[in-house]
């Protein structure tokens, strides 16, 4: 039987009917027979009915129904039996033809740095740990909800956005305690990374204290091995390679600590100063390269001429116009002036200079003839001797009206404005002696001159400038030679010679250091050896060296460089590649990464750091699962300090959703606005003394070393009084804005604005080569530095607990357009008290 459903769309009716199969003609009912046969059957049927031999209607109904049901059942049985037999026969002759593309079946690549796992934290264990913390730590140190989320994060990767004063250090210590004391993780499977020696010492102190409250055995040596800087962790890796067992780090040359204790002399990644042991190796390399490479010698000669050449002055400058009026008079007395200057230099043992030919050639200035003192051999450059600043400013020629210093200043100005010849002006005896030693080819003399790369604030000794530029390039994760090859300079640009020479010197210095006994290597080269560019080197590491990075926690992650990110990713990828065999027989299994930071406190972009990796954490460290924690409680500062600091960084790229709130004891502090005023060292010192005499802790912050000298004259009495106290009781600190990070004081005094005063063509180029900055931005480094100006002010202000005073200088006319953090101050906001005069 077949059921049929018919839908009449017009009348909106549905009809369901049962259709029986067609009946064969031999079984056609009488009603359907031809007329004659139907008539005969009717007569015969009536007769049989009359004789009661049959019942007509029953016959019709029964015959029709029976034959139909029988036919339908037979049809079904026949179909099923035939289908089964036919299918079986078909299977025996089936020909398989694969029409798929002939590509091999390869599993999809898993780019995650971690396996998909969870930290085994049961509800009962969390409850027990919370109860123990409540019992052992004071009420003021109990974790907040956000801090507990950090401590109990169970995913392979965790990003913690922790603003200033958020209590992150204590939270990290409790996280370590949970892993070690309650989950049994071995200490050699974990590393806590801090960025500086001071922050490392502070964290170790907290760690020993908290572990002691739980009676967990941890001696200082174990704590030092657990809490590291990145630099102290990488050194043993290189020493683990064949032939490098006694390798020394270039940055720690000159330290007398025995091998194995280098972690106690961690290199500060933010301190680029060089010591004498390092300079000696650099100068030896320079001497050898100068003799072996004619091209390098040619480039150095070009840079020396450029560096020592007297810088031009605008003839329309007021000083030029005033001194130009006495040109003829100055020319008349010039030969006598030359005699006096040469006598002073000769008496100081600074003249004559080997490599400079003494002569009294004359040059014409505005129609008058002036004399030079010599000529630099091998170059078409004249040499002039200056008046050393250590000589008496009152020294005069017999019968002269002006001092020698004043006569020399007139001549110098005239040459700056009107001389069109290459002219080297030696300002003092010390620089001349360095130049003399360099020209004489002495072993450890070095180049003997300073060079200013475009965009740098000041000139630096040439080899120091080489080191600073190579460090910046390598911190961005680039190879120096490859980066230089990708840079472009306009014809005649002095930076072109500098970077070509840098590439030659950098390669020679690495070879020179490795040739020492024992060999020496820079930290940058160590990290590069184990970066994502060289995964094969990680395969050589034994398990005990790699295992401490299985569970790593990084503080101040916003300050990482691309180079460190590449090394960390390569390490985590190698840990996953080795799999369970790396953790065999241990409680600590798998791997994890927990990073704590605040993009608003990223202030080391000038050395290659970038908050980009923290802001895009989930893309930087791919993981099957991830935890994000927002710690917005500020346990340090009163609310007005917080509001003012956050307003200063408005407009900078930042992680969304950040708005800090004064919490704990800080929430009860009075809301005193940040005082912004015109720069006045005497007024600042008077207010500082008031706070110090009231028994408060005081922090004096300055932007430049010269600012420290200026303010020292005014706060000398406070400095002397404080220095007489025991170290633990001292309440005055003098620091730069950068070095104050992580510290605090009741009252903070800020001297100087935060501003970006220059533009760096080469750093913009390598920034683009490293893939940093926004697409299409021709000056990505400059853009990043303009944002960093505001973040530096944020860091300085958030050092304050109760009071903050900010003294800023008025911008000069030519610096009116320079980005300044104080431009963000809005006097109508209650968090600011802007006392500056219009």
Describe this structure in words.
With 838 residues, this protein is α/β, with parallel strands linked by helices. Among the domains are: 2-76, no CATH class; 129-137 and 177-247 and 525-621, Rossmann fold (3-Layer(aba) Sandwich); 310-421, no CATH class; 668-834, Rossmann fold, CATH 3.40.50. It contains 30 helices and 26 strands. Strand 16 (551-554), helix 22 (562-578) and strand 17 (592-597) form a beta-alpha-beta unit. Helix 4 crosses helix 5 and helix 9 packs across helix 18 (494-514). The radius of gyration is 43 Å and the shape is globular.
Layout of secondary structure:
Blueprint: E1 2-8, E2 13-19, H1 35-50, H2 56-92, H3 123-136, H4 145-151, E3 157-162, H5 168-182, E4 190-193, H6 197-213, H7 220-226, E5 227-228, H8 230-239, E6 248-249, H9 276-292, H10 294-308, H11 318-324, H12 327-332, H13 334-347, E7 356-358, E8 362-365, E9 368-371, E10 374-376, E11 382-385, H14 404-418, E12 423-426, H15 429-439, E13 450-451, E14 460-461, H16 462-475, H17 480-486, H18 494-514, E15 520-521, H19 523-529, H20 535-538, H21 543-546, E16 551-554, H22 562-578, E17 592-597, H23 612-615, H24 617-620, E18 626-631, E19 633-634, H25 639-648, E20 661-662, E21 674-678, H26 681-693, E22 698-702, H27 705-712, H28 716-723, E23 732-736, E24 745-751, H29 761-769, H30 780-797, E25 800-808, E26 832-834
Parallel strand pairs: 3-17, 3-18, 4-5, 4-16, 6-15, 11-12, 16-17, 19-20, 21-25, 21-26, 22-23, 22-24, 24-25
Antiparallel strand pairs: 1-2, 7-10, 8-9, 10-11, 13-14
